[in-house]
Amino acid sequence: xxxxxxxxxxxxxxxxxxxxxxxxxxxxxxxxxxxxxxxxxxxxxxxxxxxxxxxxxxxxxxxxxxxxxxxxxxxxxxxxxxxxxxxxxxxxxxxxxxxxxxxxxxxxxxxxxxxxxxxxxxxxxxxxxxxxxxxxxxxxxxxxxxxxxxxxxxxxxxxxxxxxxxxxxxxxxxxxxxxxxxxxxxxxxxxxxxxxxxxxxxxxxxxxxxxxxxxxxxxxxxxxxxxxxxxxxxxxxxxxxxxxxxxxxxxxxxxxxxxxxxxxxxxxxxxxxxxxxxxxxxxxxxxxxxxxxxxxxxxxxxxxxxxxxxxxxxxxxxxxxxxxxxxxxxxxxxxxxxxxxxxxxxxxxxxxxxxxxxxxxxxxxxxxxxxxxxxxxxxxxxxxxxxxxxxxxxxxxxxxxxxxxxxxxxxxxxxxxxxxxxxxxxxxxxxxxxxxxxxxxxxxxxxxxxxxxxxxxxxxxxxxxxxxxxxxxxxxxxxxxxxxxxxxxxxxxxxxxxxxxxxx
Length: 504
Known about the structure:
FAD/NAD(P)-binding domain; 24% strand
């Protein structure tokens, strides 16, 4: 078998590269060693944003780039790019007064080319009280409101892959890249099916490594990654009712409370990580950090570990920089030639995945001399599957056999976790995900020919994953974590000053 371009990695960047290349007429093969979006690309904050915090750091080109891309994604994937207003409460005696933030969000609008998801504004303390009565108002000077977008990260990957396949790309999950040897005309590659252990060989003209935090594990790669961990919690929206996303600050970072249908997402952390890459988890300290800071802003909610329904944790593949805090490291992407015919794509963020893919394919087709057209990913809708199937959107679809059948027949789902965690988000959203998993397993089993032993194995694997993701909740609940104010917080709940250079 021979292909023009091999893409390694089935996250959002790899998916974008495969779609871009296939739309240009390049013979493209994409492989992912686990399930699509099972790494970083299903574990984000689900935001499309320009990076308003970079304004404070003077990184205007980075803000401009991401701001334009988030608006473009609204055009090509409207079902996965919902406008989301953000409220940033402001307080006396901080280094982020309302007037300064008001100027900043107006600049933010301008950098979007007057095409932002909504127009920024500012509110008085009384105006903030009317919009968000539950927030701590002691010493409040009001708030600023700005707009970014809300998405479903895993669905964006899957829809992009389906569109890539529609344009001719060959797409495979559970297929590991094992080795590659340079030849006179490109590469001889060995791939392995991680489900059966079967190996196969192919030749290709060029390879793009889009494996994120796994990049340094590939022998041909020439990148150094500084992984940082981001953690999110999910609570019932009735416990923390936020009509709009709310910016929650600590001394050096910001967190968000994000409305998500019947749920509210809380996060994220940003800490250095040196553990196993395959399945990072929220721990009790992460959970305590988020709850304590959210409770500072919403003291009457008094959230505890018992209120947390689900968690997820992901690793950011930041380009290595030994200096500075994790939150200070640039999210700018890099595309490097490690060897002739081999490109490493590192860094960046969800919002700019389309642009990263365009630049990577531009360089590859030019260097390899491939017969390819210009990039077309900014024009058509991401049209990977029939519009009448209610499977894809920012909120999970209703649990049904028809939706499960669609995931199996059209979206490469072969394991119970593929559907429960990534294609549907049911594990993070439903009241009783374990009961839903039993139904889904039976439906999948009939479609895929599972016997009783295989079905039990799939359920067992899901239950192990679920227990691990909830371990921090149980541990924190036993320790009575949550509901306790931070050291140094005043009785009135006034937010302490935010130092110059803090992340926004």
